[in-house]
Amino acid sequence: MLLIRGGRVIDPQNGVDEQLSLFVKDGKIVDLFPDAGQHKHNLAGARIINAEGCLVVPGLIDMHVHLREPGHEYKETIETGCRAAAAGGFTSVACMPNTSPVNDNQAVTEYILDRAAKSGCVNVYPVGAITAGLKGEFLAPMGELREAGAVAVSDDGKTVKNSELMRRAMEYAKNFSLPVICHCEDTDLVGNGAMNEGCTSMRIGLKGIPNAAEDIIVAREVSLSELTGCRVHIAHVSTKGSVDIIREAKSRGVNVTAETAPHYFTLSDESLETFDTHFKVNPPLRSARDVQSIKKGLKENVIDVIATDHAPHSSLEKDVEFDYAASGIVGLETALPLALRLVTEGVLTMRSLIEKCTVHPAQILGIPKGTLGRGCDADITIIDPSAAGRVDVSRFKSKSRNSPFNGWEVEGRARYTIVKGRVVEEGCAPG
Ligand code: DOR
To answer: How many helices (H) and strands (E) would you count in the chain?
Structure first.
């Protein structure tokens, strides 16, 4: 039993934003009541958490993480990835299929779920592959993946190059009510590019990747969604063009949603001047103009979700020449304070920010999470929005340290992460 007292409860799904106490029993939310109000519950034996000055929100959901297990356990395991999630305030994560072996069949999905049940402290929702082995040649068995517990399909990390195959993938996925999460990059335009194409790439002499590489595939996925009626979710949006295309598609009623990651609204390609490989990510950090458009897209709800694209890599892959370095940023333990900056800057209201990290990802994935309604699973994040700290990668719960935010002074952290009524993390990142 838990009583969470005195916090500002924000539950966008139920239109709640007020000071309330929350009573949890047997892993479920039993009741919410005004602090001073009468209630009928016997609180004997309940743990009491004082949430004064804090936000009490539905457990945060990160719909885009790489847990690396099976196959790349030296970078992350389901256990360490879940601990990083809990430290960052996330109670649920959806994990991408680019593991080894690839999650393109029932056995791998079941393996992930089994490992998560045994060693994971947060809810893990596997995303299955669109094509066998992520090779872009044959469709993966989506019905089997769905039955085993996959909540979406994606070839994340790679674009399905063949448009005909992507059309069939969408038709197939629609039959199983699976959303298709699209990694959008025209591989020919990307070539051997290592960063955004623009003034900075010209100045420092690294091969650039034009915005068009992303925009072209986003436009294709929107067209294919219109053709097939399949639900399409655009992963890690980084360009102004993508935001414009998605805005226009939504205005016509196309079944498309989108996400971006904190690094795309926090950093620009100018950071690459240091040649620090921690800034290397895929798609690449874009221009300051793109960063403004991403913020506008978030504000206007063109971008529905903030997801981390948590992509752990070891120093073996990062401490090398820029061209050879792996792409990716670990995001689970820094996302919350970076996202809260959007509220401080006036880009988002707190309610809208919470929506993008709870209700929206839950709806897109079709999972029964993201709300604090009575009778729901007691997945709760208690956030202290003004706690100041310094990001220290050496204290990360993640196995990997590839964050460009090391040493940053940030504000806001999860104080408690609660999964099905159990406190899985206290204190929480960063610092
Ligand atoms: O930077 C990235 N890293 N982008 C992706 O799409 C894949 C990810 C990874 O798996 O490392």
So the answer is: 14, 18
Which tens digits make up the pLDDT trace of 188-211?
999 999 999 999 999 999 999 999
Q: Which two tokens stand for residue 167?
A: 């059309």
CA distance 341 to 89: 16
How far is residue 97's CA from residue 427's CA, in Å, rounded to a whole number?
31
How remote is the CA of residue 225 from the centroid of ligand 1, in Å? 24
The pLDDT tens digits of the residues spanning 274-299 come to 999 999 999 999 999 999 999 999 99
CATH number where 23 lies: 2.30.40.10
Q: Which helix (H) or strand (E) holds 62?
A: strand 60-65
Nearest CA to 291 out of 257, 327, 267 is that of: 267
- Full residue range of the structural domain in which residue 304 is found: 59-365
How many domains does the chain contain in total? 2
Nearest CA to ligand 1 atom 9: 311
307: Cβ below 6 Å to ligand 1? no
Q: Which residues of the chain have pLDDT under 70?
A: 36-37, 428-431
